[in-house]
Specification:
It is a single chain. The chain has 195 residues and is mainly alpha-helical. Among the domains are: 43 residues, 2-Layer Sandwich (Wheat Germ Agglutinin (Isolectin 2), domain 1), CATH 3.30.60; 85 residues, no CATH class. 55% of the residues lie in helices and 8% in strands. The strands form two sheets. The chain has a three-stranded antiparallel sheet with strand order 3-4-5. Strand 3 and strand 4 form a beta hairpin. The longest helix is centred in the middle third of the chain and has 34 residues. The chain is elongated and about 80 Å long. The chain starts with a helix and ends with a strand. 7% of the residues are buried.
Amino acid sequence: MYLELLNWWESSLSDYLIILYCNMETKKCTICKRNLSLDHFSFKDSTHTTLRWCCKECNAKKYRDKYRTLSESELIKERERHRNWRNKNRERDNNYRLRWRNENKERFKESCRKTKDKNKKLWKIKLWWECYYLIKKKWLRTNICSLCNKICKTFAHHPDYNKPYEVIFVCNHCHSDIHNWYKEVDKSKIVDLSM
């Protein structure tokens, strides 16, 4: 008798919760204490029956804070775990990325542009240090500007970044004029540092 009553109670309670859940339009986040619509909450599991107790925004902040406090060894383990998951679910992950790119074309273009700009800046910085080292090592710096023939401190200018070892030594004024397209570089004045 008791067991039958308990089974009836559990089934009735689950039916009641399903009805209650379906009629719910908002839910309160337990972290930020805001009443938000249900689309602000992600599901707890793959069955999509139970919502998380905190909103997507607070959940993301919680995981960001968690990753910031991890030690180096824990971070390596976590990255390895993510890599393994991606390898096991490669098709699912690729489908998700493709779907996201199609839904967020402008954000994807902006992200690609930022990455390209960042890589270009890093490449120029690396090139600058390499050139600086070669100049210091070979003592190639001259005190005479190649364009105005003035005796002053000179800077190495790269007319073409695809040829990293070809530079021209110019004064600060001529260097700014070159970058502002006021002066043309005389190709005969280019010094090859790779020699």
